[in-house]
Automatic annotation (TrEMBL):
PANTHER family: AMINOALKYLPHOSPHONATE N-ACETYLTRANSFERASE-RELATED-RELATED (PTHR43877). It comes from Streptomyces levis. InterPro entries: Acyl_CoA_acyltransferase, Bact_Acetyltransf, GNAT_dom. Keywords: Acyltransferase, Transferase. PROSITE patterns: GNAT. It holds the Pfam family Acetyltransf_1. This is GNAT family N-acetyltransferase. It comes from the Bacteria.
């Protein structure tokens, strides 16, 4: 597992439960960029959801901190009914004001490093079909798309993780 990874001006580390409000705010800012009609109000209590992700014994939430502020985060764990060598990236967000500055690539690399240390062989994720920017980012990191069903709101992507 990674400890605190430090690069000039940035630290990559595990999110602390006390930081849940920062996480929820960043999540809302990032999601607002790919919903053309605004973020749907589906009744999800995102504070409770993130609090749960931060305290799950079987999951991890990493973040990038710059100048004392969380500017990116990634939440992952083994999905239900999946073999232990599979990990799912449930959330991956970079604060829009920090796009195209290497933040996402650094966080992604930290995730892959941890997945490999945990002997994962495959990573999967679901990305919103309207989020073309994120799909491009994932493809540049080596993810490949799986066939989507007509009417699906999410595209499944897969990343093969090289072994040791």
């Amino acid at each position: 597992m990674i400890g605190n990874r430090v690069t000039p001006g940035r630290v990559i580390r595990t999110v602390l439960p006390a930081e849940v409000e920062q996480v929820v705010a960043l999540h809302a800012r990032a999601r607002a960029t790919y919903y053309p009609d605004g973020v749907p109000r589906d009744g999800t209590d995102w504070t409770a959801s993130w609090r749960g992700a931060l305290t799950r014994p079987d999951g991890r939430v990493l973040c990038v901190v710059e100048a004392g502020r969380i500017i990116a985060l990634a939440s992952f764990r083994t999905p239900e009914d999946a073999p232990p060598e599979v990990v799912k990236l449930f959330q991956f967000h970079v604060d829009p004001g920090h796009w195209r500055r290497g933040v996402g690539a650094a966080l992604h690399a930290a995730c892959v490093e941890e997945w490999q240390a945990d002997r994962r062989r495959t990573a999967v994720l679901d990305v919103h079909v309207d989020n073309r920017r994120a799909q491009g980012f994932y493809r540049r990191q080596g993810w490949v798309s799986e066939a989507a069903e007509p009417g699906d709101h999410h595209l499944r992507m897969r990343l093969g993780l090289p072994g040791e």
